[in-house]
From TrEMBL:
It comes from Limnovirga soli. The lineage of its organism: Bacteria, Pseudomonadati, Bacteroidota, Chitinophagia, Chitinophagales. The keyword Cell inner membrane does not apply. Pathway: Lipid metabolism; Amino-acid biosynthesis; L-histidine biosynthesis; L-histidine from 5-phospho-alpha-D-ribose 1-diphosphate: step 7/9. Keywords: Amino-acid biosynthesis, Aminotransferase, Histidine biosynthesis, Pyridoxal phosphate, Transferase. The gene is hisC. This is Histidinol-phosphate aminotransferase. The modification N6-(pyridoxal phosphate)lysine is found at residue 210. Homodimer. Residues 49-345 form the Aminotransferase class I/classII large domain. It comes from the Bacteria.
Length: 355
């Protein structure tokens, strides 16, 4: 059975006539723009902010196309990956009828977005070694399973999944496989973007929020077949990426070298912090990480979390999450922040062992 995107798209989306913006109906050069009810006098800020932004973000896609080695028609940009996630639900999943598969513990937005869209969630928890449970995934998939969400490297466990396992899902599942690569720049694994030619059912998500250091701008990327990208474009709000974000992202894209330096530095500090943490007596395990954070299993995780707060240090408490019992998720900070963290944990040890 071959993959046919038409069988997956919601009927109402297939029939949808998308909103045609002023910038869609005319995008050439003109002297006078009186077509979009903008403020012709200007703005209190930089003068061009009175104009609507490019609804298709063509300049950014052009640059990304070179960096990622994929044509612009395979690129979609969202107001954060979170918008891409929501658009995938809205485009492919019929509320109250369809379902998706997630592999917890994983990124919380898949479930929240499913709930908002009234899509049933089926859970195939990771195995004890944090790898995909392929047999369980296969058992859960039925004719109404539209999406399988695979976060690799995974949040909060930090590991990349076995590449052959992901390929197994891509080869056998008849719906869409979404691989969320938010942390791919910190990983030893390579991206699945180059695999798009082989898999018409693949969507790869990446983001400017992590390695690029631009969480505040809200810019996420989806890479997929031209057919899937076309559907996302139809469903998205016309001007989903604002002018300021587009300009700043373009500037950032000129600084790939600086971003690569930060990635190297963060990975080095991740390795160093993992080493230091693993020498702490109450640390039971520092899980291997392909991301910019460490999942750390530690005695009395919640109490340590509270103590760190009193020192002004906030980490993520994952100790109530299945398979992450007694675990904290710690983002790699600056050199100084990492030192402060280790010092605070040492203080905690002194207090608890001398009591
Ligand atoms: C941080 C993160 C994102 C990023 O979401 P944005 O909306 O782009 O900021 C996406 N997926 C995962 C798994 C993340 O941890």
């Amino acid at each position: 059975m071959s993959f046919n995107i038409d069988n997956l798209v919601r009927e109402n989306i297939k029939k949808l006539v998308p909103y045609s913006s002023a910038r869609d109906e005319f995008s050439g050069d003109a002297k006078v723009f009186l077509d979009a009810n903008e403020n012709s006098l200007g703005s209190p800020l930089t003068k061009w902010y009175n104009r609507y932004p490019d609804p298709h973000q063509q300049q950014i896609k052009q640059v990304l196309s070179t960096i990622k080695g994929i044509a612009p028609e395979h690129i979609f940009l969202g107001n954060g990956s979170d918008e891409c996630i929501d658009l995938l639900f809205r485009s492919f999943c019929n509320p109250g009828k369809d379902n998706v598969i997630i592999c917890p513990p994983t990124y919380g937005m898949y479930e929240v977005s499913a709930n908002i869209n009234d899509i049933a969630i089926r859970k195939a928890p990771l195995l004890e070694n944090f790898e995909l449970d392929l047999i369980h995934i296969e058992q859960l998939a039925d004719a109404n399973t539209k999406l399988i969400w695979i976060c690799s490297p995974n949040n909060p466990t930090g590991n990349s999944f076995n590449r052959a396992d992901i390929e197994m899902v891509l080869n056998n599942f008849k719906g869409i496989v979404v691989i969320d690569e938010a942390y791919i720049n910190f990983a030893r694994q390579k991206t699945f973007i180059q695999e798009l030619v082989d898999y018409p059912n693949l969507v790869v998500l990446q983001t400017f929020s992590k390695a690029w250091g631009l969480a505040g701008l809200r810019l996420g990327m989806a890479f997929a077949s031209a057919a899937i990208i076309e559907i996302l474009n139809k469903v998205k709000p016309p001007y989903n990426i604002n002018q300021a974000t587009q300009e700043l992202a373009l500037k950032a894209l000129e600084e790939v070298g600086q971003v690569n330096d930060m990635i190297t530095e963060l990975v080095d500090m991740r390795i160093a912090l993992a080493e230091v943490l693993s020498t702490i007596p109450t640390v039971e395990k520092v899980f291997p990480s392909d991301a910019n954070f460490l999942l750390v299993k530690i005695k009395d995780a919640r109490k340590l979390y509270d103590f760190l707060l009193t020192k002004g240090i906030v980490v993520r408490d994952r100790s109530n999450v299945k398979l992450c019992e007694e675990c904290l998720r710690i983002t790699i900070g600056t050199e100084q922040e990492n030192t402060d963290l280790v010092d605070a944990i040492a203080q905690w040890l002194n207090i608890t062992t001398s009591a």
